[in-house]
Amino acid sequence: MKRIIITVVSTIIVVSIILLSNYIYLSSFIDVKVYKVRKARIISSVSSNGRVEEIDREEIHVETPARINKVMVDVGDQVRAGQELIELELGDLELQLKQARTRLEIEKLNYVNMLNGSNTRLIGEGEYVQEVWNEYPEYAGNTAEVYQKRIEIAQLEVEKLEQKLKQQPRILKSPIDGIVTAVNVRKGSITNSLEPVITISNVKNLQVVANVSEYYISKIKEGQKVEIRGEAFKNNCYNGIVKKISPIAKQLITGQNSETIVEIFVDVLNEDSELKPGYSAEIKIITEEKGDALLIPYEAITQDEDNQDMVYVVRNNRAYKRKIVTGAELETEIEVVKGIKEGEKVILNPSKEIRSGTKVRAFLDN
After folding, report:
1. What is the pLDDT of residues 269-281, one digit of tens each?
2. Number of compact structural domains in the chain
3. How far is the C-alpha of 345 from the C-alpha of 33, rounded, in Å?
4. Which region holds residue 253: left if phi is over 0, alpha if psi is between -120 and 50, else beta?
5. For residue 11, what pLDDT is reported?
6. Which of 247, 269, 288 represents a domain boundary (last residue)?
7. Together in a domain, 80 and 174
8. What per-residue confidence (pLDDT) applies to 123?
9. Is the pLDDT of residue 151 over 80?
10. Could you write out the DSSP letters of every residue in 333-354?
11. Cystine design at 208: which of 2, 155, 244, 266 (Cβ 3.0–4.6 Å)?
């Protein structure tokens, strides 16, 4: 009986020693959550808002005020290059030219009469000579040169009006194939040089003009793919490509706020009749795309004494410091381009107790 008691006590002591040893051993470990480094396909993008516009749009202006005699098209009409659009009444301009030519002949006749000593003069000519003297004092007292100056002025006026008539055809024609998107005149109205009389657009060749913040413009490159969506065409996603980036930045003022932005121009590759000029659009520019990027959560990254990005990798129940180089930034994860391998386990939210060589007990989080 005594031997049995001794055996039991001995067993209890041995078990206690083992348990205590295990406890002491395990208590020297720090429990950590780890993430297994994985490969995945990533897409980095920059989003912005813009507006659908025509790439080919021609605004037809009339530089000299003229009366509209006939409007031959309406908004929405399909037109061909060379098709007649508007007929101008150039009678006023032609009358001005006729009067200018008459005045030139009179000035020449006055000069001849002056040279011949004739007393034939136009009414009010003395006042006109005085006006020329006032405007060109270098001719004061020299009547012959004044008459020559009058001829020169009249000749310039004739040439100016002739040039206007030459540059302004009576019939305005479409310079391109397209659709009439604006008509700003009607029969009998007078043209305004600051406003186009008519606008022709090629609605089969569209682009999106968007503003990108200066903070992201360095990521944008010509040739990058673009996804185009919008409220007016919810069921469609159009494909595009960055065609051009403005060489200058500008200030965009909204209310009390201002932002420095750069305009970009995106060609639409698969437009259809549902996409119309003037629509607002939401674009997503694909700045980077990889099929086998190494990803870890942001919580795994910390900085060393040199402020360099690093992680703790767990191997054989110990933590080891590893410097890393990061790449594309995603919503919850970040790409690591150098420093770790697929399948390695990195510690999430490492505490200050963790050092290189620290014993850890890892619990997989993914």
Report:
1. 988 888 999 999 9
2. 4
3. 9
4. beta
5. 64
6. 288
7. yes
8. 40
9. yes
10. EEEEEES--TT-EEESS--TT-
11. 266
CATH number for the domain that contains residue 233: 2.40.30.170
Are residues 123 and 213 located together in one domain of the fold? no
Q: Is 7 part of any domain?
A: no
**CATH number reported for the structural domain that contains residue 321 in this entry:** 2.40.420.20
The pLDDT of 80-88, averaged and rounded, is 94
* Sequence-separated (6 or more) residues with CB below 8 Å from residue 248: 262
Q: Are 211 and 281 in a shared domain?
A: yes
Domain boundary (201, 218, 249) is at: 201
In sequence order, the β-bridge partners of residue 293 are 40
Query: What count of other Cβ atoms lies within 10 Å of the Cβ of residue 126?
Result: 10
In a domain, 142, yes or no: yes
Which tokens go with 93? Answer: 């301009």
The residue count for the chain: 366
Helices (H) and strands (E) in the chain, counts: 4, 22
Torsion, Cα 94 97 101 103, to 10 degrees, reads 120
CB distance 113 to 151 below 8 Å: no
Are 110 and 122 in contact, with CB atoms under 8 Å apart?
Answer: yes
Within-domain flag for 3: no
Report whether 103 contacts 154 (CB < 8 A). Answer: yes
pLDDT band for 234, please (50, 70, 90 cuts): confident
Q: Is 21 within a domain? A: no
> Are 185 and 231 in a shared domain?
no
| pLDDT tens-digit map of 20-42 | 445 544 456 899 999 999 999 98
The CATH number for 178's domain is: 2.40.50.100
| Highest-scoring range by mean pLDDT, 72-86, 92-106, 141-155, 166-180 | 72-86
Residue 120 has pLDDT above 80, yes or no: no
Q: Minimum mean pLDDT among 93-102, 302-311, 312-321: which range?
A: 93-102
Q: Which domain holds residue 320?
A: 28-44+291-364
Q: What is the pLDDT of residue 201?
A: 93
Give yes or no: residues 296 and 342 share one domain.
yes
DSSP calls for 131-171: HHHHH-GGGTT-HHHHHHHHHHHHHHHHHHHHHHHHHS-SE
Lay out the sheet containing 171-173: strands in order across: 67-71, 84-89, 171-173
